[in-house]
Amino acid sequence: MKTQIFLPSDAEFYLFAEVKKHVYEAGSVGLNQPDELSLEFLAGCCVVTENGIPLGRLAFYDNPELYWKGKKACCVGNFECINSAEIAGTMFKQAELWAEENGFSYLLGPMNGSTWDNYRFSTHHDHPLFLSETFHPLYYNKLFKECGFEVILNYQSRIEHGITTRNEKVAHKIQDSHLSNLIIRELDVSRLDEELEKLFPLVKAAFERNTLYTSISRETFHRKYAGIIRQLGTHYVLLAEMKGELIAFVFAFQNHLETTKKQLVYKTIARKFGKEYTGAGHAVALEIMKRAVEDGMEDAIHAFMIYDATSTEISENFNSQPYKEYVLYAKSIGNGKG
C-alpha cells in the first residue's frame, strides 16, 4: 500500500480521477459525475494505491472561515474509496497530520471546500437520484464512522405529491403580509450579470445565518450561478421586488433525471429578513408552483434543507413530506479532543 499527496499540477494527479473507476461500475451515474475541486481552498489531495492501483482518495481544504464549536476546522471532501476501513483510515490519517501541523482542531466532511460546494452524504437510496443530487455508495457513511467521525448536522429533502396552487395555509401567509405592491418576474438572462449582482447580497444575507456558512466572492458567486442558470434555463427562476427592491428569490428547475413524469426541484428559496417581508418567500414559491402546474408537473422536491432552516417552514406549508436525508460528519483532532 502506498500513500501519495498531490496537487492538480503534479504529473501523477491523474490517479486521483482513476480511483472512481475502481469504485463505480462502467457507465454508472457515480462514475460519470464531474470532479469539482475547490481550488480556492485546496491544500492537498491524498491517493492510496495498492499494487499500483488507486483505490482511495480525498482532498483536504483550508477554508480560513470554517469553524466548528469555535475552533478551526479542516474540511475533507471529494472522497471516493473502495469498501476498506484500512484505506479510508490511511487517508484520514494524512489529513489529520496536515491539519494538526496547521493548527486545526477538527476534520469536517464530506465537504468540497465550503457549503457553496458539494457536501453531505445520503443516508439511504430508497428513492431515485434527482438532478443536482450527488450519488455515492452508502458504505461511505460506515467508513467515516469507523474512522472516528460523528454526525454533527442533519439535512433533508422533502417532496410534495400532486402539486396544486390551491393552498389555504400559503394563501393566508400571503394575505396577512404587507406585500400588496409585490412584483414577481422571471430572471432576465439577457442581463444576467446585472441580475446576479442584484441577487448576490440577498442570497448572501439569507445564507450567512446557516450553520458552517463561509463567505463567497462576487466573482465565484457569479460563476456558479451563471453556469447552472444557463444550463437549466430561467423559467423557474423568479425574483420578487417591492418598490424596486429585491426581497425574495426562488431558483427551481425540472428534474430531467425523472423520466416517468414531470417533476420540479426547488433548489434555493431566499428572502430578505424582517417582519415586513414575511410572506414574500411563500408568494414567489406559489408563482413557481403555478408555472409548474401549467407545465404538467406532478411532484415538487424541496432540496437540501437543514432541519431548522426557514425554507423548511415554507416547504411544510406546501404540504411536503420527508423524502431523503443527509448527514455531515466531524472528528476532533489535536486540541479538539475532549
Could you characterize the architecture of this molecule?
Strands 1, 2, 3, 4, 5, 6, 7, 8, 9, 10, 11, 12, 13 and 14 form a 14-stranded mixed β-sheet that branches. This protein has nine helices and 14 strands. The chain has 338 residues and is an alpha+beta fold. Residues 170-177 and 307-311 have low confidence and may be disordered. The longest helix has 17 residues, at 85-101. The relative contact order is 0.16. Helices cover 28% and strands 31% of the residues.
What is the topology?
Elements: E1 2-6, H1 14-18, H2 29-32, E2 42-50, E3 53-61, E4 67-68, E5 71-81, H3 85-101, E6 106-109, E7 121-122, H4 139-146, E8 150-161, H5 168-175, E9 182-186, H6 192-207, H7 218-232, E10 237-242, E11 245-254, E12 263-271, H8 280-294, E13 299-306, H9 310-317, E14 321-332
Parallel strand pairs: 5-6, 12-13
Antiparallel strand pairs: 1-2, 2-3, 3-5, 4-5, 6-14, 7-14, 8-13, 8-14, 9-10, 10-11, 11-12
Helix pairs in contact: 5-8, 6-7
Provide a concise account of the structure shown.
With 338 residues, the chain is of the alpha+beta class. Helices cover 28% and strands 31% of the residues.
Segments where pLDDT lies below 50 for 5+ residues? 170-177, 307-311
Q: Can you give the mean pLDDT?
A: 89
Percent strand equals 25-35%
* Tally of DSSP β-strands: 14
User: Biggest β-sheet, characterized?
Assistant: 14 strands, mixed
Reading the helices and strands in chain order gives EHHEEEEHEEHEHEHHEEEHEHE
Give Rg in angstroms: 21 Å
Please state the oligomeric state of the protein chains shown: single chain
> Roughly what percent helix?
25-40%
Give the overall shape, derived from the CA principal axes: globular
Helix segment count? 9
Structural class: alpha+beta
Please report the distance between the alpha carbons of the first and last residues. 32 Å
